[in-house]
Amino acid sequence: MPSGPRIEILTIFPELVESFLEGSLLGAARRSGVVDVRVSDLRTHATDRHRTVDDAPFGGGDGMVMKCEPVVRAVEAVARPGARVIALSPRGRRLDQPIVESLADERQIVLLCGRYAGFDERILEATGAEELSIGDYVISGGEAAALVVTEAVTRLIPGVLGNPVSFEQDSFRDGRLEHPVYTRPREFRGHTVPEVLLSGNHAAIQRHRHKESLRLTVKRRPDCVDAIKLSEEDRKILRELENERDSGA
Questions:
Q1: How far apart are CA 97 and CA 177, in angstroms?
Q2: pLDDT tens, 33-81?
Q3: Could you tell me if 143 and 192 are in contact, meaning their C-beta atoms sit under 8 angstroms apart?
Q4: Which of 49, 133, 191, 193 is geometrically suited to a Cys-Cys bond with 92, CB 3.0 to 4.6 A?
Q5: pTM for the full model?
């Protein structure tokens, strides 16, 4: 029986979404029943013979607008009481790990994939949908964004990852970026693996990874550092990094 939220993806391109969901860990988890991810075609909720889901915007302008009737009917057909309805949109709150973790605790998530010039605003009002963005850029539809949300949420569900604690090492899990990782060969075109990783000294390896994680976070995402709950060891490592920077090491 699935232990995470039931995820419903509403789209006019179900075949596009299904092909992605069939692969990799998510596909295996879906087939084994660990996760419950369903895909529905918005066009099946249109009532005209052309299965129309869009129309020209009132007031003029470029593009077509997703119509209220089929989209709201589609949400009403799948949403259970208490479902969290999300419209993927560049206008929305930007997705981050805390949002992903909150979604993983829901009982049901309904992901609305927009197309064209976007949703009729009344769809959001009628369904109570919150808008969610995967970044400050625009893509041609909500399908890729819905799959990003689905992948991020389902990897937190027990049984999806081969190693149940793997996600605890992920970037942003505790506010910092993940440390660099290496595999065979030991040397590739003059680039070598840090000696400490070959030492067998687990304590030294753990500290090296911890330090490199902080080094990357300070360098690439200094905005994240203030949000990290720093331990005494963290502060000691940060002082070391400052000393290395000052000495040019």
A1: 12
A2: 999 999 999 999 999 999 999 999 999 998 999 999 999 999 999 999 9
A3: no
A4: 133
A5: 0.90
